[in-house]
Amino acid sequence: MNESLGKYLEKIGQELSNQTICGDDGVIHPITKDEQLARAIWDQALGCDVVTVNVDGHESHKIFPPDPKMMQFIIERREGKLTTPIDKKQANLLDRISDLNRSKANDAARQATNDSNETQEN
Prior knowledge:
By secondary structure, the protein is α+β, with helices and mostly antiparallel strands.
């Protein structure tokens, strides 16, 4: 059990899902679970109409409006940014971690500059 959760998620994400998609060539292709998840995220972001058919063949439609939070999630992921925190408590923690990392990076840069200056003086 040395594999991390991330490795399992990666492995499972590459498995084929139970969904298919019709390609540009008109042929139906299976999709991976990763692609299925990505499509579900896009559907939530842009809004969608879900059609369900019961055993009697009766169709029902449920319309989901666009979700601005999911839009923001997609934008931030595409720009390589950290995803939007869920609540203020989490946001404050992320801000503190970011500040701490910035401080450590600045300290390391100062130390490297000081070491470089000391070497040049000798």
